[in-house]
Q: What sequence folds into this?
């Protein structure tokens, strides 16, 4: 320690000093603080009073099943909880192996199911569903403990995720004539449909987006122009028009006797839409790769395909993970737009519930509930994305 | 594969009669548009209905952009305020809005707030001239009186005098003479005082406000803003302002601390530092992401259909349903949105090029 230099003055100095510095620094700061405290206080008291005494939260408890799974037949709903068990196990393992942001997400998946279990217990879903959800939380916790510091399992885990998504989808949609009879996607609804639309949307849009991004940087003029035109066209029009278009047009691309239901059509629209945005994210990642990398790959004798697959893409995709989490968040919010073409995801179910005669006046309760659900989901994801960004060191290298 | 898909498409289109054909635009629409921007009758053509929708979309987008920019600027600066309560409140607003879907917010504003307002009979009133009820917001409308013409001349004289003083001050400054604040306070005084004197001496006042009056089950006279219009504009403004606030915050934080310290060292006040040092530099960082927020706002205005405001998309779907030509109409609608998006990004790119520092 150097001598003769005084340490900086202690500016922390207790609560009073903090208040003076941050709330009452000048006379107009004081005025602002007092006015805000009065206004916010009145608002908070009013809101709390409404939430505790006036609000009819029964609208949420009674219709919890609709909010969660829509019209999905209740006797088949065990398949949803089982699908969640698979995902919980994988999420728990991932949380243990990767730690960091993934652990935050895993924790929230477990905590979310525990909270739902509490709600299910007091609602018509009943204690058995509550037990299943608590079991899932426990599976996630167990997976976390099993996975701690086992980095050797990473490849297996990636395969597990890749396999599990179609398996869970198959489990939910079912195969006719087996123990899991077919459940048409037209009865899927609520939070289940919100998640399916957003997840399938981003998972299927990802490869398409990567291809478009590569196409936009391609040396072949025809491919470059087509990719650029597609990306700019899609990004220039609202999602509703694309959903509307998909609803009308996708059936026309198929032979006359093939019918696809509206959920698939909406998913198709969402995939076509988000592919353009994924492409722009990926292009950002591709541009961040120094030319030296490609030249080195060529010097090693890799052809264009190999250098993309083994050198450029692994680095580029790693850099755009946070941006794609951001895209997933906006997609999760944008799934509400399928209400306009008549699907019953979380918001659509809310509107359907409000049409029930006994809950006619419960607008505030229903919309506040839906807003809270989205807030918790999106806020958690965005916090995880910030941590991911920090741990990947994007932008700081 | 593409040829198979295309073959299917052509076969199906001809089967259900959905060729691309815009001939219907001249035929009679037969549906009404509540709150059309120009006189529109159900007997007018589909083309005119489409134009009415386009005008509404442009109106909502323009108002949304103006108010969202103003609110976003305030919230963005507030997030960096030294007052803890102010910055936390701004942060809370931004996080709440950004993490919930716009459509939920629109439904909330429209169904849970605006439609739950008192009926026309128990309207909330502000000073007997502004009324708020289920049917919308009713504002007094400005009416010109006979003295309007002389007053407008005075206003013009004030503007000319203001600019004249400014030019004079600039010339004196260039010549190294004292300006006596002619450019700032002098020109402002000329601009305000001359028309103000005119306003006071003229009788009756040049512009009178005609308050809306109740007639039966509704209000007549004044400016009526329907709940649908209010919902979509307020929703778009609140939503986009949160994103703009983050853009503004990023722009301000991109400025090196030394710039602010230097401004304080020169004796500029906090307000002057913000206005003369921080914002002009931050603007260069802000414009590109701001452009994409404006584009998002214009595209999000298509959600007006959720609250029943007759914008381009809603009118388009109605036309599509009525004519049995939904594919042609939706292509037309998409092309129109594309034109709007391209125009916005073109304008802002031009502006962006103007304000960037020209590097040697």
A:
């Amino acid at each position: 320690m150097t001598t003769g230099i005084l340490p900086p003055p202690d500016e922390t100095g207790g609560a009073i000093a903090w208040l003076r510095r941050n709330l009452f620094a000048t006379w107009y700061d004081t005025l602002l603080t007092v006015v805000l405290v009065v206004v916010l206080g009145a608002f908070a008291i009013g809101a709390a009073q409404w939430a505790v005494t006036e609000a009819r939260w029964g609208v949420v408890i009674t219709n919890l099943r609709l909010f969660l799974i829509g019209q999905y037949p209740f006797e088949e709903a065990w398949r949803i909880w089982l699908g969640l068990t698979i995902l919980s196990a994988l999420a728990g393992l991932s949380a243990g192996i990767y730690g960091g942001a993934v652990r935050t997400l895993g924790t929230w998946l477990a905590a979310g199911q525990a909270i739902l279990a509490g709600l299910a217990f007091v609602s018509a879903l009943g204690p058995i569903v509550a037990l299943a959800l608590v079991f899932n939380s426990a599976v996630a916790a167990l997976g976390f403990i099993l996975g701690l510091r086992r980095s050797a399992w990473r490849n297996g885990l990636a395969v597990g995720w890749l396999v599990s998504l179609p398996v869970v989808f198959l489990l939910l949609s079912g195969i006719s004539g087996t123990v899991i009879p077919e459940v048409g996607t037209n009865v899927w609804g609520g939070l289940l449909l919100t998640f399916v639309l957003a997840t399938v949307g981003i998972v299927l849009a990802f490869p398409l987006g990567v291809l478009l991004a590569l196409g936009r940087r391609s040396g072949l003029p025809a491919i470059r122009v087509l990719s650029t035109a597609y990306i700019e066209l899609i990004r220039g029009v609202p999602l509703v028009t694309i959903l509307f278009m998909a609803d009308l047009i996708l059936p026309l691309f198929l032979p006359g006797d093939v019918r696809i239901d509206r959920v698939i059509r909406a998913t198709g629209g969402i995939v076509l839409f988000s592919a353009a945005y994924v492409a722009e994210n990926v292009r950002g990642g591709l541009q961040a790769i120094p030319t030296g990398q490609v030249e080195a790959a060529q010097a090693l004798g890799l052809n264009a395909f190999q250098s993309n697959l083994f050198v450029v893409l692994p680095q580029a995709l790693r850099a755009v993970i946070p941006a794609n989490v951001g895209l997933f968040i906006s997609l999760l919010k944008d799934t509400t737009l399928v209400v306009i073409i008549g699907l019953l995801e979380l918001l659509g179910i809310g509107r359907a519930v409000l049409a029930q005669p006994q809950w006619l006046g419960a607008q505030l309760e229903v919309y506040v509930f839906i807003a809270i659900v989205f807030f918790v989901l999106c806020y958690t994801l965005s916090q995880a994305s910030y941590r991911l960004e920090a741990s990947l060191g994007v932008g700081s290298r | 594969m593409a040829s198979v898909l295309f073959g299917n498409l052509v076969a199906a289109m001809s089967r259900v009669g959905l060729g691309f054909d815009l001939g219907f635009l001249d035929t009679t629409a037969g549906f009404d548009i509540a709150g059309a921007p120009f006189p529109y009758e159900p007997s007018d053509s589909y083309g005119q209905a489409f134009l009415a929708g386009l005008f509404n979309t442009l109106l909502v987008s323009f108002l949304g952009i103006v108010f969202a920019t103003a609110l976003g600027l305030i919230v963005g600066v507030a997030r960096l305020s030294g007052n803890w309560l102010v910055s936390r409140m701004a942060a809370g607003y931004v996080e709440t809005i950004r993490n919930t879907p716009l459509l939920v917010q629109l439904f909330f504003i429209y169904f849970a707030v605006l439609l739950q307002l008192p009926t026309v009979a128990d309207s909330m009133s502000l000073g007997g001239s502004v009324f708020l009820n289920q049917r919308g917001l009713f504002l007094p409308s400005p009416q010109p009186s006979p003295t309007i013409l002389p007053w407008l001349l005075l206003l013009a004289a004030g503007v000319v005098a203001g600019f004249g003083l400014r030019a004079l001050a600039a010339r004196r400054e260039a010549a190294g003479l004292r300006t006596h604040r002619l450019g700032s306070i002098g020109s402002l005084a000329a601009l305000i005082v001359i028309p103000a004197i005119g306003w006071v001496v003229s009788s009756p006042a040049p512009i009178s406000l005609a308050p809306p009056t109740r007639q039966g089950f509704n209000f007549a006279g004044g400016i009526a803003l329907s709940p649908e219009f209010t919902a979509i504009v307020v929703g778009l403004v609140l939503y986009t302002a949160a994103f703009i606030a983050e853009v503004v915050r990023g722009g301000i934080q991109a400025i090196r601390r030394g710039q602010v310290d230097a401004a304080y060292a020169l004796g500029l006040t906090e307000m002057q530092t913000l206005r003369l040092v921080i914002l002009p530099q931050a603007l260069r960082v802000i414009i590109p992401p701001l452009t994409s927020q404006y584009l998002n706002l214009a595209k999000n205005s298509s959600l007006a259909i959720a609250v029943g405001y007759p914008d381009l998309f809603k009118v388009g779907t109605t036309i599509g349903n009525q004519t049995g030509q939904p594919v042609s109409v939706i292509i037309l609608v998409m092309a129109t949105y594309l034109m709007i998006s391209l125009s916005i990004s073109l304008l802002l790119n031009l502006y962006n090029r103007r304000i960037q520092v020209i590097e040697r």
Summary: The beta strands of chain B are 124-126, 130-133, 136-139, 141-144, 207-210, 213-215, 218-220, 223-225. Residues 46-79 of chain B form the longest helix (34 residues). The domain at 20-123+229-355 of chain B is CATH 1.10.3720.10 (MetI-like fold).
